[in-house]
Specification:
Blueprint: E1 2-8, H1 18-24, E2 29-37, H2 38-41, H3 49-67, E3 73-77, H4 79-89, E4 91-98, H5 103-118, E5 122-126, H6 148-162, H7 206-210, H8 212-215, H9 228-233, H10 238-248, H11 250-268, H12 290-297, H13 304-316, H14 321-334, H15 339-349, H16 355-366, H17 381-388, H18 393-398, H19 415-431
Parallel strand pairs: 1-2, 1-4, 2-3, 4-5
The structure holds flavin-adenine dinucleotide.
């Protein structure tokens, strides 16, 4: 039997789904497929909440399709092996999937593409997780932007020219392959333990978005959307959310453009995954002291905003953006710990972990990134707390027994000393590379 496959990856939804839409247009019956990829799962803890999220969302999607009489194949394994089996059972003419710019995905897709070619099957990778492909928003001379503001300006210009597409995939499901076997609930994934956890809803809250510019910087209030995990796994269409942002709040829209900006950086500069965007920052002599790292990871630095941030992260898999900036700055600048360590720690704990944004955020905080905070900007965690958590609501929520900054544990490092030390270390590292006109 000749079919097309819709390979669901980071686009776990039926509505406004480009890969599904194109698959349904292909002229063949479409088999939806999700693979719990053993290579990715191997690096995750058995209690990882992101696996729990995937199990629930894939199960939900499979149930919705089964209710309408359609098949959804769910496998656990190595993608190449899964495709080898499927291409024996079916004559697969096309595979449609949402593209991903992460190095592992690029390599995996190359292997799959080569294999499918030997089976006369076309592998189509479509851009669904961002509004515009990275090469759609570039400078007039054809090179990528390295500064956010002109990138954003051009992004908005492109938006006027292109509009935001809508792909009504949900209206053409009749072309999916019928379910010819009893439907089975996904109970678990081999090696993982089911978790009892309440994930944020994928329904954008219009009141939050309308008031976003007023409350988004205050971690003690619920002022941001909490939609990160849904954008990560495509349980919400970025096009739908961007349309809402255009209607309701331009500050919120700007944050979505930051997300696109970091995706663009990862696409054009994949070396940022392991190296500083500004190579001179790789000459900085990080201290990477075990005691400092342990204090930061355990929320024991003596700075309430930093410790509360880690408390929130470990308890919920989330950390408020303002606090992400302060904790990242504290680790890299106050403690002189390599940004790659903090990046990996966040990657292990954030539910909304996204390589492009996480790498961008950490390199921004360390100063090594594209359009980053300048090296001499060292957040004062005490002033940040006074300004953004003046009544200590956030600290009280995430630090057990916290009463006030005055009675809190002693800071592991004094701010003025840390500031002088990092400026010296950064100047030394950067001037070793001929950057000697530093302020
Ligand atoms: C050190 C550091 C690490 C970060 N790691 C991640 C990460 O792994 N994954 C991630 O999605 N974001 C990351 N961010 C960006 C930002 O902190 C989160 O996107 C945001 O806090 C998620 O909360 P929210 O969904 O309520 O976002 P909202 O404030 O409601 O924003 C809506 C959406 O816009 C996007 N967004 C918002 N701010 C940014 C930003 N500064 N950069 C890129 N995208 C943004 C996100 O997709 C977010 O869900 C990081 C920031 C820093 C400073």
């Amino acid at each position: 039997m000749e079919i097309s496959i819709w390979w669901v990856r980071r686009d776990i939804r039926i509505e406004d789904n480009l890969a599904l839409f194109r698959a349904l247009e292909s002229g063949y019956a479409v088999l939806p497929l999700f693979i719990f990829d053993r290579e990715i799962l191997a690096g995750m803890a058995p209690t990882d909440l992101r696996v729990e999220f995937l199990v629930r969302e894939v199960d939900k999607l499979s149930g919705i399709l089964a209710d309408q009489g359609f098949d959804f194949r769910v496998e656990t394994g190595i993608p190449l092996e899964v495709f080898k089996i499927l291409t024996v059972k079916y004559t697969v003419r096309h595979v449609f999937a949402s593209v991903d710019y992460e190095p592992y995905s690029i390599k995996r897709d190359q292997v799959i593409e080569e294999f499918l070619r030997t089976k006369d099957c076309c592998f189509h990778r479509l851009t669904d997780h961002v509004v515009f492909t990275p090469d759609r928003v570039i400078k007039e001379n054809g090179t990528p932007y390295q500064v956010f503001t002109p990138y954003k300006k051009n992004w908005l210009k492109v938006l006027e020219a292109d509009n935001i597409n809508y792909y009504p995939s949900e209206k053409h499901l009749a072309r999916l392959l019928p379910l010819n076997r009893p439907w089975k609930k996904i109970e678990t994934v081999e090696g993982f333990i089911r978790q009892d956890f309440e994930f944020p809803s994928n329904e954008p809250d219009l009141v939050t978005i309308t008031n976003y510019h007023l409350h988004r910087d205050f971690p003690g209030v619920q002022g941001t959307s909490r939609l990160g995990i849904h954008l990560r796994f495509g349980t919400l269409s970025i096009r739908k959310l961007t349309r809402l942002a255009l209607d309701y709040n331009t500050t919120f829209l700007s944050e979505l453009i930051w997300r696109e900006y970091y995706q663009m950086i990862l696409f054009f500069y994949p070396s940022v995954v392991t190296r500083s965007f500004r190579p001179e920052y790789d000459q900085i002599q990080w201290l990477n002291k075990d005691d400092d790292i342990a204090a930061w990871c355990n929320g024991q630095t003596g700075y309430p905003l930093v410790d509360a941030g880690i408390g929130e992260l470990l308890a919920t898999g989330y950390m408020h953006n303002r606090v992400r900036m302060v904790t990242a700055s504290f680790l890299t600048k106050h403690l002189l710990v390599d940004w790659r360590f903090g990046e990996a720690f966040f990657a292990a704990h954030l539910l909304d972990y996204e390589l492009a944004s996480n790498n961008g955020g950490w390199q921004w905080a360390a100063g090594s990134g594209c359009d980053a905070a300048p090296y001499f900007r060292v957040f004062n965690p005490v002033l940040q707390a006074k300004r953004f958590d003046p009544q200590n609501i956030y600290s009280k929520r995430w630090i057990t027994g916290f009463v006030s900054p005055d009675t809190y544990i002693k800071p592991i490092i004094e701010h003025g000393y840390a500031r002088d030390r990092v400026l010296k270390a950064f100047r030394k590292g950067l001037s070793a590379n001929g950057i000697d006109s530093l302020p």
